[in-house]
Amino acid sequence: MLVAISNTPRDYAWGSPTLIADLEGREPTGAPEAEIWFGDHPGSPAEVHDGTERTLDAWLPATAREHDVPAKLPYLLKLLAAGAPLSIQVHPSKEQAVEGFAREEEAGVARDAGSRNYKDDNHKPEVIVALSDTFTALAGLRDIARTRALVDALGDAPAVTTLRAHLSVDDASEALRATIGWLLGEADAAEIAQIVDAAASTDSAAFAAELELTRSLHTAYPADPGIVVALLMNLVTLRRGEAIFVPAGVLHAYVEGLGVEIMAASDNVLRGGLTPKHIDVAELLALVDFRPAEPPYLRPTTAGEGAEVFAPGIADFALGHLVPGASSQLDLRGVSIALGVAGSATLTGASGESVTLAPGQAALVTPDESPLTSDGAGEVFVAMPGA
Predict the structure, then answer these.
(1) In what order do the strands lie in the sheet with 345-348?
(2) Residue 329 annotated as binding site
(3) What is the mean pLDDT of residues 279-294?
(4) By C-alpha distance, which of 312, 307, 352, 314 is closest to 332?
(5) Which parts of the chain fold into alpha helices (H)?
(6) Are strands 126-130 and 243-246 parallel, antiparallel or unpaired?
(7) pLDDT tens digits for 13-39?
(8) Which segments constitute the Phosphomannose isomerase type I catalytic domain (predicted)?
(9) Residue 214 sits in which domain range?
């Protein structure tokens, strides 16, 4: 079975007013359009266009036996359009989520409370693939020698000297833990402002992009401590079709651009700056992997002519990609969601049933339709369970 599904954009303040509209070939509404969710997450379940007027969170349990689909999807697929930087954040591991959720449930913390850290008991690894010509992100903590060199370029203001002292601890992970703990929990507004001012006024060819980002972040979030946390992170510019995988513990923030994102079905987010929302510093420090690392690029593997798969090696999800050109086939791993992102693509399942997707249009595909064939005229991403 191939059945069309749809949803409406979510109007988070950081959303772009044009990127999703341009993809879909329509006039912008004038409001920010941040994300469109294609899944059964209760926060914004997709509508199923089969005449039943059900949303996907109701459709799956009602048809699970008939169509051999699970009552709940293990993943959530999104279009994400960042017109302004999202908050710096980290997601828990499965074990951390189970423990944290149970702890807050036992303490009686309301699930919609602003101070709630764990909305559910699941982890939230995620992959984003750039759809715009470039997609800017912060992902993981930079090699500490380079970070020390960046801070050395900021001069000798008292707060910069304190920052430099925290980063001078021999063990890189402990140095970064101490630095982020100080920035988010101990440094006062004047100290943060002093570091930000130093970075905004510094001219360094080696770190020109990082310092320019500091200036734009200061415009969006004046004197926010997350601006300085961002100086410790890898600045990543993805070209169209490139991806990063963000597992548990990796600090990250999406800065600007349009992408297709897939994640485990969870709403667990611990924030670390660039936000007016609650920051639980102690819990954040307990979750972050402070080991410096290169940016977490994820390269696809070939899955036949015209098909590839972004597979991070987890059970929750993988993301298939049918490129425009020659007709291609993709073997599905359970119930899948196909999303058109360019051109007009006609997808045909094993039963001979077909659906045509324009950019921004999506369809749910049941497992008995594998392999899924594309006519090659358009570009499609296919969310499915992982191996």
Answers:
(1) 328-330, 372-374, 345-348, 354-357
(2) no
(3) 97
(4) 307
(5) 19-24, 56-67, 94-107, 144-152, 158-167, 172-185, 189-200, 208-220, 226-230, 281-287
(6) antiparallel
(7) 999 999 999 999 999 999 999 999 999
(8) 4-142
(9) 143-231
The number of domains in the chain is: 3
Which residue in this structure is represented by tokens 């992408």? 259
pTM across the whole model? 0.96
Domain assignment present for 295: no
Domain membership of residue 313 (yes or no) is yes
Asked if residue 340 and residue 207 are part of one domain, the reply reads no
Token pair, residue 23, equals: 């993809």
Q: Is 292 a member of any domain?
A: no
Judge whether 91 is annotated as a binding position: yes
Q: Is 198 a domain residue?
A: yes
User: Does residue 194 have a known ligand-binding role?
Assistant: no
What does the pLDDT look like over 255-277, one tens digit per residue?
999 999 999 999 999 999 999 99
User: Which residues lie across from 363 on neighbouring strands?
Assistant: 4, 338
Does one domain contain both 126 and 147? no
Residues 249 and 101 placed together within one structural domain of the fold: yes
Whether 187 and 133 share a structural domain: no
Are 215 and 271 within one domain?
A: no
Is 96 part of any known ligand binding site?
A: no
Rounded Cα gap, residues 282 and 177, in angstroms: 11
pLDDT tens column, 129-171: 999 999 999 999 999 999 999 999 999 999 999 999 999 999 9
Query: How would you classify residue 128: left for phi > 0, otherwise alpha for psi between -120 and 50, otherwise beta?
Result: beta
Active site (catalytic) residues: 271
